[in-house]
Amino acid sequence: MRVLIHAAPARMWYVKDFLVPRLRAQGLKNAQIQVWNNKEGKGNLISCMEAFASCRGLPGGTWHIQDDVLPARDFVRLAAAHDRGIVAGFCCRDFEPRRGAENTGPQPPRNLWYSMQCIRLPNDVAAACASWFETVRDHPDFAVWTATGKRDDQFLRAFLQARLPGTTVENLAPNLTEHVDWLIGGSLINRGRAIQTERSAYWADEGLVAELEKELKDYAIQKEPGQRPAEPGPAPAAGRGAGKGRAGAVPC
Description:
This protein is globular. Strands 6-8-5-7-3-1-2-10 form an 8-stranded mixed sheet, sandwiched between helices. It has a two-stranded antiparallel ribbon with strand order 4-9. Strand 1, helix 1 (12-25) and strand 2 form a beta-alpha-beta unit. It has a single domain, classed as Spore Coat Polysaccharide Biosynthesis Protein SpsA, Chain A (Alpha-Beta Complex), CATH 3.90.550. Helix 2 (44-53) crosses helix 4. The chain has helices at residues 12-25, 44-53, 75-81, 123-136, 143-148, 152-163, 206-222, and strands spanning 3-7, 33-37, 61-66, 69-71, 86-88, 105-107, 118-122, 169-171, 177-179, 249-251. The chain is built from 7 helices and 10 strands. By secondary structure, the chain is an alpha/beta fold.
């Protein structure tokens, strides 16, 4: 099993001190974890496609997670149990109004969740998506996405519908990660976004979020004033519910 963390420089402190240690504590080895650092600030979409391209020629698949997630307590066990095909391990409650049994489990590509916070892709599919991006990035349907650097999840779904319409994807519930950007300085994409948006629709462990919040507060206290990360924001209501080529890749 392989995990690739899509990261921005501003979040490397969280990746290094919180996210990677959690994955290691669940049994992953250094060689199974890779960090793709978007150190040139190319935007989510372009950086994501470059990370996908880095999977070309690798066997099997990769779990792609973003730098602002909290893995479930048993993330590695559950991810290993579903380490095949295309699997969405996160569902954004604000983007997916349809919920329940009819929208979980095996689905056609059009029903794939907006799930870049946690998604498993075969490496050849990820590489094919990156190649397709290079051919359509300036097409009127996608030019705005390319220019703004956003909508990586929407582009993946567009690729699957256009190039692999007959494939089956799996929407996995409960989700394997929670989106916790509100605890680590807020969204890097939309500074005006309310803190209670873009949480997981199928997250079952609010206690783990509370534990992380306490750890982050202790972490901030231990840092010198000039080195502190952004202070955590208030918690959402209970039950509500992230260089060209391989230069950005940092193996752990």
